[in-house]
Design brief:
Shape: elongated
Pfam family, one: SutA-RBD
Strand order of the largest sheet: 1-2
InterPro entries: SutA_RBD
Structural class: alpha+beta
Protein name: Transcriptional regulator SutA RNAP-binding domain-containing protein
Radius of gyration: 41 Å
Organism: Venatoribacter cucullus
Distance between the termini: 74 Å
Helix content: 25-40%
Amino acid sequence: MQKRPSKNTVREQLSQEVEDFLLHGGAVTEVPRGASGLQDGRYGQPVAFDKPREERTPVSDVLKVIDQRREEQRKTHKPAASKKPKRPRKKVIYDDFGEPVRVVWEE
């Protein structure tokens, strides 16, 4: 497992890289305080918003046709009948003390 570099070593490495950049002809442009990063007073806009807004195709009549079809299917479609007919069930009758007295078949 490699040991992470400490903050001091990272700072030293960064300052060394800056010095090397400046010694080899690099230049740092100074920006006045309070200068904005906005372009023409606006934030940089994504490429997707370069074009003017396009007209949308109206689809309300298509949606009405789809809804009518759906309603027709609901009217003609009958709910599925229960698959199993109800079978009689056993019901145990208890007396006042909780003892079973008899068994009755109930539908």
